[in-house]
């Protein structure tokens, strides 16, 4: 294989050129996203029915939960029940296909006979808004009609556009608004008027006419075609509908408000699952130019959210760090090799490996994302390392051989080490594919990128590098090389003397090494643990909840004061308000999205600004939470800390929740502590006095129907419009639906048609009750939520667990974590599993390659040394462990094994050639010192931009790079000393064990 590459340079060049071309093509055609497509099989089930809270919980929610819980692969089931509405989130295990999960839910729910309207929706990690458009107009009705008839259909036709959420939109309708005084004048009620209208405004099939030649279907169109015709419907002789009601072309009562400079409609546009986010957003922006020309001049729109800007910003930063890292790496390589041609040949390995890796990633079905580029940045050290080791070995041979011969002998001598190194790296990442968790999908995306790069890098180092070296490597030493050589000779001599002394005092050195390791592991216990670090994306959100059950307009007024306060901040670019933003469209809940000015235009980072806003926006009458926008879209994942108390007795659950909040409030770094049982609703309860109803001969059902048609905006027909159909609804005029006095004015009739006051048979009672009931895995639950400020999620979780007996008490209660704090546990479990399996695989592979049971253990001693260094680096810089850091540590374990393999492989060869262990180790150490130092410095300098540049993604990139840098430093320094010590200590044991299985061999 080596000879072929050297003897057939054009064929070799064409092979790698083909890989580069396919790689470039892949890079320009692959999907581009911020993070890997984490498809969490999450299904949302919404149910609407006429029923109070208890009815919805017992008759709707529980029935749905019981049916869904029988589906195979279900992981968690959470629900919230409200008056007339309930929502359920069914999360399935990751190996369950989202489409299959949705079909299973449909099949199960299809067997239920529920008096409710059921909607089923698939939710994935990329189902959040990719671009948001805000529309406003001075004519609200016209705006609603154009949104429904023109804008939404227009956007839906754009390639890549998925679901569109319209916040602040109300469907146009024809509203009949009854005057209660006029009803009393004509001795009418809302139910009677509704029935009169239904009897005069309808269409229906009437049968058919049939003869020998034709068949005619009969249809009766007895409906008003205009509002004027509707007004002329006769109620009594001489009394028309317009005499007792206002009939207007309006829109539904608003359940949500979107506000940006004025009221309007916010359209949150999602992409189709697995579609290129950047491409979809680009398609929408391009199409908006045409839409603008089609809209009336009084309708304006703005882009308020554009995910592509954040994606491009992060990717550009990582690419810049990568390019800068390449530049620094080349400087290091040149300073060590001091040979321009060798440096250029080494440089070829980096772009070739990176670009060709895109091709493999594309074939395997992965997309380009931030983790892909971070993986390639972290792997640059691997790419250059393989090339350096080969070039450095070839360069040594140039002193005695021609370039052609030196290239062949150099790669042949080092080829087995390169193979061992590559196999070890692959072994580190194979276990990642078995991590069946959300964090596992992140690990998997990085692992595939690195593994693909390792394979390409191996091929480049054993084929392309020798081929180029044989033709272009210059053996002539420059004056700079000659003058600087003495520096490297002194380093080698210093190392040789140091190693000699350490080998003579190996027990003392082993003790020192173990003390270092134990100290670093002790530091690890003091380092915080997060799922994903808070990054400066120049955006965050403020959640507002009123402690009273306010109307939509009242909540808007309160929220606008906060919005105006925020807009005065010079660090803020813009902000907009959403009232009633959640699934239940609760008027007492609002959210403000805040877009900060770019990082380079402000002094404070986002984390500092958020912390300041928590103090600034405190309000005794409002619950206010200031949170970053989560990196992973999903149901209810906004709050970092989510702790649930589960049980049957709601009062006991409330008591335990209060104790949980008491525990959390003891630490001032835990902020925005809240729970989902605080929300109360104001209620006027109506009770039929059965004795009076019987005495006066009143039917309670008839009373309820009158009240429903008076206050509920019920649909009683429809009217065609140009491109749509508007519902006709009826109720009292809004001015007659404001307080309890409105109820007292309602008149009813008994079975004899005698007119009566509602209060003659109905009692009224003001009351306050809970607004919702939540379930988790079919148990009643209350969720405590909190934010964090300079404290890790791991510390919060430990605080809760340490006080669990106090929180739950002696009641028969249970608990669960959800959201990011739950993902944190899954991440740690997956990391431990991956590392354990990786170590086993590395040992098995190295044992097979070296035909030794001891040598793999000597090589693997570098891995805990690297972990110790990584812990030291994180502790000194004040960073926490996170998903990104754990990914880097897995990569680090593969990288540090390279140096040990180079050293052990050569020492082992020399021992088998007859040298004693001390001589073999000193020879191997001195021979491999430059290559080890060069590759280590190259990898460290490749990481420096990620570690130091405080641009986009610094909060995640820096801890990753720091853990790798410190891990490399500690493992390299100790590898050069510890590995020889352990090699010498275990060499005789290795020989004894070898004698057992090498005693008999076939000749």
Automatic annotation (TrEMBL):
* Superkingdom in the source lineage: Bacteria
Q: Name one Pfam family in it.
A: ACR_tran
Q: Which UniProt keywords apply?
A: Membrane, Transmembrane, Transmembrane helix
- Molecular-function annotations in GO: xenobiotic transmembrane transporter activity
Coiled-coil annotation reads none
**GO CC terms for this protein?**
plasma membrane
InterPro entries cross-referenced by the UniProt entry: AcrB_DN_DC_subdom, Acrflvin-R
* Transmembrane stretches, start-end: 318-337, 344-365, 371-394, 414-435, 441-465, 509-529, 830-850, 857-877, 883-908, 929-948, 960-983
Name under which the protein is recorded: AcrB/AcrD/AcrF family protein
- Organism, as annotated: Campylobacter novaezeelandiae
């Amino acid at each position: 294989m080596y000879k072929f590459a050297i003897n057939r340079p054009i064929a070799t060049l064409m092979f790698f050129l083909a890989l580069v071309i396919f790689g470039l093509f892949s890079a320009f055609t692959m999907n581009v996203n911020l993070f890997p497509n984490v498809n969490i099989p999450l299904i949302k089930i919404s149910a609407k029915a006429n029923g109070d809270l208890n009815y919805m919980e017992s008759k709707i929610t529980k029935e749905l939960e019981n049916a869904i819980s029988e589906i195979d692969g279900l992981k968690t089931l959470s629900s919230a029940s409200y008056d007339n509405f309930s929502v359920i989130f069914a999360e399935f295990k990751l190996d369950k296909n989202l489409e299959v999960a949705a079909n299973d839910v449909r099949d199960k729910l299809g067997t239920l006979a529920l008096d409710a309207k059921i909607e089923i929706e698939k939710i994935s990690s990329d189902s959040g808004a990719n671009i948001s458009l805000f529309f406003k107009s001075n004519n609200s009705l016209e705006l609603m009609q154009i949104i429904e008839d023109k804008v939404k259909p227009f956007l839906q036709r754009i390639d890549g556009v998925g679901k569109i959420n319209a916040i602040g939109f109300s469907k146009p309708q024809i509203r009949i608004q009854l005057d209660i005084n006029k009803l009393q004048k004509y001795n009418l009620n809302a139910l009677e008027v509704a029935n009169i209208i239904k009897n005069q405004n309808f269409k229906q099939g009437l049968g058919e006419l049939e003869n020998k030649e034709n068949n005619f279907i009969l249809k009766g169109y007895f409906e008003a075609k205009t509002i004027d015709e509707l007004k002329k419907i006769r109620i009594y002789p001489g009394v028309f509908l317009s005499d007792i009601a206002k009939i207007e072309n309006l829109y539904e009562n608003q359940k949500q408000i979107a506000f940006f400079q004025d009221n309007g409609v916010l359209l949150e546009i999602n992409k189709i699952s697995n579609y290129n986010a950047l491409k979809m957003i680009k398609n929408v922006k391009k199409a908006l130019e045409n839409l603008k020309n089609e809209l009336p001049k009084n309708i304006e729109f703005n882009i308020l959210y554009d995910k592509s800007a954040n994606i491009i910003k992060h990717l550009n930063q990582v690419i810049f760090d990568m390019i800068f890292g390449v530049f620094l790496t080349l400087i290091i390589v040149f300073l060590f090799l001091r040979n321009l041609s060798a440096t250029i040949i080494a440089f070829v390995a980096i772009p070739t490996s990176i670009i060709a890796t895109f091709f493999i990633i594309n074939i395997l079905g992965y997309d380009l994302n931030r983790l892909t580029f971070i993986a390639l940045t972290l792997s640059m050290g691997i790419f250059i390392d393989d090339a350096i080791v080969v070039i450095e070995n070839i360069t040594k041979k140039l002193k005695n051989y021609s370039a052609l011969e030196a290239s062949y002998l150099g790669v042949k001598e080092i080829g087995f080490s390169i193979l061992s190194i590559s196999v070890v790296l692959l072994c580190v990442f194979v276990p990642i594919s078995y991590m069946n968790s959300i964090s596992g999908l992140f690990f998997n995306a990085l692992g595939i990128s690195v593994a693909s790069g390792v394979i390409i890098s191996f091929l480049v180092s054993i084929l392309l590098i020798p081929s180029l070296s044989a033709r272009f490597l210059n053996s002539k030493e420059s004056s700079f090389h000659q003058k600087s050589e003495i520096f490297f000779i002194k380093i080698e001599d210093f190392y040789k003397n140091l190693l000699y002394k350490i080998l003579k005092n190996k027990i003392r050195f082993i003790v020192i090494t173990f003390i270092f390791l134990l100290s670093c592991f002790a530091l690890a216990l003091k380092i915080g643990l997060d799922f994903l670090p808070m990054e400066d994306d120049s955006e965050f959100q403020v959640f507002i909840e009123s402690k009273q059950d306010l109307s939509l307009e009242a909540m808007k007024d309160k929220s606008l004061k906060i919005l105006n306060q925020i807009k005065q901040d010079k660090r803020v670019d813009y902000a907009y308000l959403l009232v009633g933003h959640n699934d239940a469209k609760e008027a007492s809940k609002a959210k403000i999205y805040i877009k900060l000015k770019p990082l380079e235009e402000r002094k404070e980072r986002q984390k500092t600004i958020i912390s300041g806003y928590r103090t600034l926006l405190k309000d005794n009458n409002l619950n206010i939470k200031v949170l970053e926008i989560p990196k992973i879209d999903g149901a209810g994942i906004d709050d970092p800390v989510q702790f649930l108390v589960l049980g049957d007795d709601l009062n006991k659950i409330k008591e335990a929740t209060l104790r949980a909040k008491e525990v959390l409030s003891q630490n001032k770094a835990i902020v925005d502590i809240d729970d989902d049982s605080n929300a109360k609703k104001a209620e006027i309860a109506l009770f039929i006095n059965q004795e009076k109803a019987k005495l006066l001969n009143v039917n309670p059902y008839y009373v309820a129907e009158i009240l429903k048609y008076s206050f509920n905006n019920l649909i009683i027909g429809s009217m065609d419009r140009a491109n749509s159909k508007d519902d006709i609804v009826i109720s009292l005029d809004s001015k007659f639906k404001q307080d309890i006095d409105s109820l007292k004015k309602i008149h009813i009739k008994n079975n004899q048609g005698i007119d009566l006051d509602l209060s003659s048979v109905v009692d009224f009672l003001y009351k306050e009750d809970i607004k919702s009931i939540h379930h988790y895995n079919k148990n009643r639950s209350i969720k405590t939520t909190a934010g964090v400020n300079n404290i890790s999620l791991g510390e919060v979780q430990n605080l809760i667990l340490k006080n669990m007996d106090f929180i739950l008490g002696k009641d028969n209660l249970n608990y669960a974590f959800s959201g990011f704090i739950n993902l944190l546990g899954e991440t740690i479990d997956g990391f431990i599993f991956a590392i354990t399996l990786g170590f086993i695989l590395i040992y098995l592979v190295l044992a097979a390659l070296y035909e030794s049971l001891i040598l793999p253990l000597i090589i693997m001693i570098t891995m805990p040394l690297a972990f110790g260094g990584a812990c030291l680096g994180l502790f000194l810089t004040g960073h926490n462990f996170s998903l990104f850091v754990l990914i880097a540590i897995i990569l680090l374990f593969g990288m540090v094994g390279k140096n040990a393999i180079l050293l052990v492989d050569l020492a082992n060869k020399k021992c088998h050639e007859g040298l004693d262990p001390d001589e073999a180790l000193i020879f191997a150490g001195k021979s491999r010192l430059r290559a080890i130092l060069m590759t280590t410095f190259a990898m460290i300098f490749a990481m420096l931009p990620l570690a130091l540049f405080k641009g986009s993604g610094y909060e995640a990139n820096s801890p990753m790079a720091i853990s790798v840098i410190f891990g490399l430093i500690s493992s390299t320094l100790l590898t050069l000393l510890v590995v020889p010590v352990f090699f010498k200590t275990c060499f005789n044991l290795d020989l004894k064990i070898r004698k057992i299985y090498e005693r008999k061999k076939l000749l």
